[in-house]
Every structure is written in structure tokens, then in C-alpha cells.
Amino acid sequence: MPAGVTLGALGVLGFSFSLPATRLAVAGLDPWFVAFGRAFGAGLLAIGYLALSRSPLPSVTQVRRLLVVALGIVVGFPLFTSLALTTETSAHGAVVIAVLPMCTAIWAVVRASERPPGLFWLASGAGLLAVLAFVAVGGGLSGGVGLADLYLMAGVVLCGLGYAEGGALARELGGAQTVCWALVVSLPVTLPVSWYTADFSRATGVVWLSFAYVTVISMFLGFFAWYAGLAAGGVAKIGQIQLAQPVLTLMWAALVLGEPVGWPALATAAVVVVCVVLTQRSRVTPTKVAVEQAVR
Fold first, then answer.
1. Are 109 and 161 in contact (CB under 8 A)?
2. 195-211: per-residue pLDDT in tens?
3. At what angle do helices 147-173 and 175-197 cross, to 10 degrees?
4. Angstrom distances, CA of residue 294 to CA of 63, 113, 170, 233, 286
5. pTM check: above 0.85
6. Is the separation of the CB atoms in 35 and 75 below 8 Å?
7. DSSP for residue 138
8. From CA 7, how far away is CA 238, in angstroms rounded?
9. Which position among 80, 155, 195, 293 has the lowest Cβ density within 10 Å, counted as fewest Cβ atoms?
């Protein structure tokens, strides 16, 4: 199995419990604190990693690009999903993960200078439809479009941007350094917001465990593997591995909440596997800009 696929799969596995963990965390913590507090905590871990690894400072141009990454993965996605999950379930939030791979592929064309072929878009679209159908059968699409759905849509657009920009930048800095520097440049925002929104009066042990998960795994270690995978295998192609994330998310919900998983989950998983294989077999053509970045 190619290294990019393996690393991408590890990242998706780590991210797959993010929505259930966020749902548990916002039950006892302010959603703004969950979003910015986990980024602040991960930022402290990032400082330690960068110091121990003696990572060189990024250039001015790279800092500008890191701000784009931070807008997507440090601020945008955590904040909007936290706000949405105060009123919606993690199953409903799985809609975000279903749309995210396609959004990431589109941003890969715009920001990472990649050109996926027709087969890629067909397979990606088929996988998206399969996951949306599964979420609909499981009740994740019940009800009309509300404020929470708008939060989720905003989160997925910004997250796709952060994935594409970060995956391209990881070709220069490395996956771990990219997410670490993005967390560090965000500290002037994440620190004061975390301090202002800190209220621990309703926090329980489960709430703190869930917050620790989204801090250490979802916001830090998961991105080590994810950005390294995007850099190695291409943003558009490796991004499609996230088609499996909604299925994994609902299976986590079944294990944690005792919800049954029937044949729709198994059928969807089979379709998703086929679609992911097709996207990985398609040849994504990099533009001249992408080639120049890769050899730099």
C-alpha cells in the first residue's frame, strides 16, 4: 500500500471520532471554548514539538499560507462544527464529512494546482452519493435546513481550503511542521478567546476526556499523518479516503451510544471502498506550479 494512502487512512481513523467527541465536549463546555481551547492546547504541544525537532522558521510567504491553513482547520471547522453540534447530533454532522472530500478536491484544483481526470470525479461523486444516502437512511438528513446546517456548510468549505493549502504546503515544510506552525501562528487568537470563554462549572470527566481527544488527536496528532499523506499522495486523491469517515463516525456512535448498525452501513462501506480504490487508481496530473513546489 502506498505511503500516502496509509498515512491518509491513519488520519481519517483519528478524525472519525471527532464529531462524537465534540458533541460530548459541548455538553459541558462553551462551544467557543471547545473550538479555540483545543487549538490553544494543541498549540502548546506544537511549540514543544517544534522546539524538540529544532524546526527552522517558515518564510514570510509560508507564514501567509499558514494563516490560510489556520483559517480552515484551526478556526473555521472547529468553531462551526462546535456551534452546530450544540443543537444537532453527530449523525447529522456526518453530512459535513460526506461533502468534505469533494470540497477538498475542488480546493486542490484552486489552491494545490492539481488536475484530477474524469474518472476521479465520477468515482468521487458516486462515493459522495453513497455516503449521503447512508446518512439519510440513518436519519442524519432528517429535518429541514436550519442554522446548524449553515454552520456545517461553512465549516466544510473552510476545512477543505485548510486541507488543500496545508497539503500543498506540507510538500515544503513536512506534515508535522505544517500543522504545528499553523497552530502557533493562531495562538494570538486562540489564547484570548479560550481565556474569555472558559467556564468549567458543568464539565464532567467524560466532557474532559472528549475535550482531550479533540485536542490531542483531532487537532494535533491526526494532522501529522493527514498532511503527510496529502503531500505524498496528492491532495485530491488522498482527500477521497475521507469518504469512509461518515461510516466510521456512525459506527463509533454505535459503539459508544449502543446504536445498531445494519446492512445499509455494510453496503455503503462496500461502495465507498470501491470508489476510494477508483480514485486512488486515477492519475491526477499536477500543473507546472505543483511540480515546482514538489521539487523545491
1. no
2. 999 999 999 999 999 99
3. 140
4. 18, 11, 9, 12, 10
5. no
6. yes
7. T
8. 9
9. 195
